[in-house]
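User: tokens in, sequence out, please.
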């Protein structure tokens, strides 16, 4: 009885490894985060030291809101820092 020809098997190639997602933040992230917090602190301190005349006299006590808003924006960025 004749022998059947076998098929040639391909060499095993393992599946390609998926590329790892880049973990981390862009290089500008930390300087902006720290800059916002420091700018907010400087804004509030300037407001108190100048007797409520600077940075913007027309805003009055809203200068505190601006300063604390800048600090909170920087703080909110810390939650995304990796």
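Assistant: Sequence out:
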């Amino acid at each position: 009885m004749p022998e059947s020809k076998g098929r040639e098997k391909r060499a095993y190639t393992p599946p390609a490894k998926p590329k790892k997602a880049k973990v981390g933040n862009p290089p500008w992230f930390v300087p902006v985060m720290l800059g916002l917090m420091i700018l907010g602190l400087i804004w509030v301190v300037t407001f108190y030291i100048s007797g409520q005349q600077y940075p913007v006299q027309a805003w009055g006590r809203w200068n505190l809101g601006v300063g604390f808003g800048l600090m909170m924006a920087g703080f909110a960025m810390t939650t995304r820092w990796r």
